[in-house]
Known about the structure:
- The chain has 222 residues and is an alpha/beta fold.
- It has one domain: Rossmann fold.
- Helices cover 37% and strands 11% of the residues.
- The protein contains seven helices and five strands.
- Strands 3-2-1-4-5 form a five-stranded parallel β-sheet, with helices on both faces.
- Helix 1 crosses helix 6.
- The longest helix is centred in the middle third of the chain and has 16 residues.
- It is globular and about 50 Å long.
- The model has no long low-confidence stretch (mean pLDDT 95).
Amino acid sequence: MKAVILLSGGLDSSTVLAIAKNKNFDCYALTVNYGQRHTIEIERAEKIAEISGVKQHKVVNLDMRWIGGSALTSDIPVPKDREEDDSIPITYVPARNTILLSLTLGWAEALGAHDIFIGVNAVDYSGYPDCRPEFIKSFENTANLATREGVEGRKFKIQAPLIKMSKAEIIKTGIDLGVDYSLTISCYDPDEKGKACGECDACKLRKEGFLHAKITDPTIYI
């Protein structure tokens, strides 16, 4: 069985890769350099893919900075110590997961892989609309309507095994599967050496996850 895993170099996607390998899939990893404000996560993804023994790892350059509208792809400051509310934060990248999953789908169809893994999470997340179960189900339906494989009955499955898990549960799962979280990076605004800011939404979720899991956080914070 072949599977394509969308690998960002972060905690969640690294855990998803470990889950896919544990299910005995032949794993192909796709990392997208979409113009995010730091490239350290690309380096981490390459290292994680290497030590995980994936069949193939592709890094695709797709500059989404021209779209704008996000603190991750423009000069808009990354919010620090943000108050939690129901609004969608400025770190949301317009249509990112739709675009990245479309790229993953194309490669999966060419490979003859019918399982696509993505590390979205709807419990401990920052309010992104493209991390919800409704979106994943909708994209799966689209994938099977828009491809030759789907039309001919070889259906795609979008697997989001973390979607209903807390960050602590994700971390515990990864530890059980041997994930080295010291290689991962979650921070939206790390320094040039890859040290995490400790104050953005992603850092706070990561800190709380390790705290609740009662596992030492290996992250190096500024």
